[in-house]
Design brief:
This protein is mainly α. It contains ten helices and no strands.
Length: 203
């Protein structure tokens, strides 16, 4: 596991702990986890989460989140964080199912909309297909601070050949950026590309 991936997992686990109150209750029989009595495992993982979440193994973190999903059947957050971890492990199909499970609990849960759209882009070799573009657009509609989602939605329209729609979407996102936002320069360049009738490459 790379240092960057380890840091990413730590941030996800700590965020999950804060958002959904994961208490370290784990299922038995998880791959990569030694067998031990439930109460001992529960205490050990609870202590890790409290004192050193960066020492959690991937299996322990996933098991914690999966148990949280069982304990909170209507909450999208555990399923979203499961999706984030699975995507980080290069398991896009499994990640997509986790994001979809989150959206079945709350179809307006923006992080899962963006996560699922990104997985579809990954599976499409970087192409922003119609489903991914729709998800990005919905995420941006619900939360216009999701600038990247708006940008990807515009790229989807451009890649589909609708340059006019792409330019309109890009201009709408561009207009909401603060004057000193460094992304304005990149967006300006992308608008120029779209204006020339080309589809910008996905980043």
């Amino acid at each position: 596991m790379t240092r960057a991936h380890t840091t990413r997992m730590q941030m996800i686990v700590m965020a999950a702990c804060l958002v959904i109150g994961v208490g370290g209750y784990l299922m038995l029989g998880r791959p990569g986890m030694d067998d031990m009595p439930m109460d001992k495992r529960q205490h050990e993982i609870s202590e890790k989460i409290r004192t050193a979440p960066e020492t959690l193994t991937t299996a322990e973190a996933l098991a914690s989140l999966e148990q949280a999903a069982i304990n909170q059947p209507n909450a999208p957050e555990p399923r979203y964080y499961i999706g984030e971890m699975l995507r980080g492990q290069n398991r896009p199909d499994d990640a997509a199912r986790a994001y979809q499970a989150a959206l079945r609990r709350d179809e307006t849960y923006v992080p899962a909309l963006v996560g699922l759209a990104q997985v579809l882009v990954d599976l499409g070799d970087g192409q922003v297909g119609p489903d991914a573009a729709r998800l990005f657009a919905r995420a941006y509609e619900l939360d216009d601070t999701q600038v990247r989602a708006g940008m990807w939605a515009a790229m989807g329209a451009a890649q589909a050949g609708d340059q006019e729609k792409a330019a309109q979407m890009m201009r709408a996102v561009f207009a909401k950026l603060p004057a000193d936002d460094p992304r304005r320069e990149r967006f300006g360049a992308m608008l120029d590309v779209i204006g020339d009738g080309e589809a910008p490459a996905a980043e």
